[in-house]
Amino acid sequence: MSQKIVVGFDESAGAQRALDFAVKMAKAQGAGIVVAHVLEWSPYSFLTPMEIEERHKRRGEELARAESALLAPVVKKLESSGVTVTTALRYGHIAETLCDIAEKEGASQMVIGRTGHSSLPSRLFGSVAGGLAQSAPVPLTIVP
């Protein structure tokens, strides 16, 4: 079974450093990379059927936009790296969803940047890096 490294990616400078680190690690280990991006989406159970339909449509548009604007350019950039690159794009709580992706992909390692596109509440109440440090199902490297 080949090893996989899941890289949390959000286009921030920290995520780019994490991706660069993961590529070097993957080359050294003969591993593949899963570039994972999570769109935060909070569920609302009190929406009307019409609102749910509209929300579902927006969700599809956001996924398509993230795939074409964020993930596809990363895959293209890494084509000549010699590393097998796949992507994972999901909605959910970022830390929990990255853990889910790592488990489903059979990852042997996770890599994230210490800081990304985080909001003020996440800086006050807990970061993705902090959450993953406590809950990652595989070894986690946090790149400064």
Describe the structure.
This protein is an alpha/beta fold and 144 residues long. It has a single domain (4-143), classed as HUPs (Rossmann fold, 3-Layer(aba) Sandwich), CATH 3.40.50.620. The chain is 51% helix and 20% strand. It contains five helices and five strands, in the order βαβαβαβααβ. The protein has a five-stranded parallel beta sheet, with helices on both faces. Helix 3 crosses helix 5 (128-135). The chain is globular and about 50 Å long. The chain starts with a strand and ends with a strand. Residues 120-125 have low confidence and may be disordered.
Mind sketching the topology for me?
Elements: E1 4-8, H1 13-29, E2 32-39, H2 49-78, E3 85-91, H3 94-105, E4 109-113, H4 120-125, H5 128-135, E5 140-143
Parallel strand pairs: 1-2, 1-4, 2-3, 4-5
Helix pairs in contact: 3-5
The amount of helix comes to 40-55%
CATH architecture: 3-Layer(aba) Sandwich
CATH topology: Rossmann fold
Strands, count: 5
Q: What CATH first level would be assigned?
A: Alpha Beta
Shape, per Cα inertia axes:
globular
User: What would you give as the CATH superfamily?
Assistant: HUPs
Mean pLDDT, to the nearest integer, reads 86
Number of domains: 1
Structural class: alpha/beta
Q: Count of DSSP helices?
A: 5
N/C terminus separation: 30 Å
Enumerate the spans where pLDDT stays under 50 for 5 or more consecutive residues. Answer: 120-125
Radius of gyration: 16 Å
Order of helices and strands: EHEHEHEHHE
How is the biggest beta sheet arranged?
Answer: 5 strands, parallel
Strand content: 15-25%
- The neighbouring-strand order within the major sheet is 3-2-1-4-5
